[in-house]
Write a structure and sequence with these properties.
8-stranded antiparallel sheet, alpha+beta, about 190 residues, 5 helices, about 25% strand
Length: about 190
């Protein structure tokens, strides 16, 4: 009799664990999550606008030909080589995006550099983030080393990367996550060697 009871309890435990496993798989199956912004520039502008006065620092945005002072700016996605050298986006990955924006610290890009990228058709987010991370982690730095790299997803359509001073990156990450419910950190890495 004891063996039958133990066998029955074992079967029930296995069934319960299997049920939990199925629920976990169901919760991981996600639908497309969109973010209500017009473009990558608006995404970064919303984050930058949430900064308190004491948290602000001098910035510029956009690419070299279209610099915007004191605000995020649109980055021409056809400038793959420039995006690689300035933002750390691998040239091969530029074909995966149809919109980009940037923010850079005006005194030293290694203090803070941020890129926001809209994926064409919202596809390949993990592949894009992996390539971005590898390219930034393997860079040869000039004018000092940034401390930290953060790469985040915002919905299924956007990837945001930021590298620089650890405290500034932590503030940016906090503001990004607070601004967008659909934002999540994909990578947070030390760049200090």
């Amino acid at each position: 009799m004891k063996k039958k009871i133990l066998c029955l309890i074992s079967v029930m435990m296995i069934a319960a664990l299997a049920g939990c496993g199925n629920k976990k798989e169901d919760s991981q199956t996600s639908e497309a999550v969109t973010v209500d912004v017009a473009d990558a520039t608006e995404l970064l502008t919303n984050v930058w606008s949430s900064y308190e006065e004491a948290e602000l620092f001098p910035i510029g945005g956009g690419d070299f030909e279209n610099v915007v002072m004191d605000a995020p700016g649109k980055y021409d996605v056809s400038k793959a080589e420039e995006m690689d050298s300035v933002l750390g986006l691998p040239q091969a990955s530029a074909t995966m995006i149809d919109d980009a924006a940037s923010i850079m610290h005006m005194m030293n890009a290694n203090t803070f550099t941020c890129g926001a990228y809209h994926l064409t058709d919202g596809k390949g987010q993990q592949e894009f983030a992996d390539a971005l991370k590898e390219n930034i982690m393997n860079r040869q730095w000039m004018c000092g080393f940034p401390d930290t790299l953060v790469i985040a997803s915002v919905g299924n359509e956007y990837v945001v990367s930021a590298f620089g001073n650890a405290e500034i990156i932590e503030t940016f990450k906090t503001k990004l996550l607070a601004q967008y419910e659909a934002a999540a950190v994909m990578y947070e890495e030390s760049l200090v060697q």
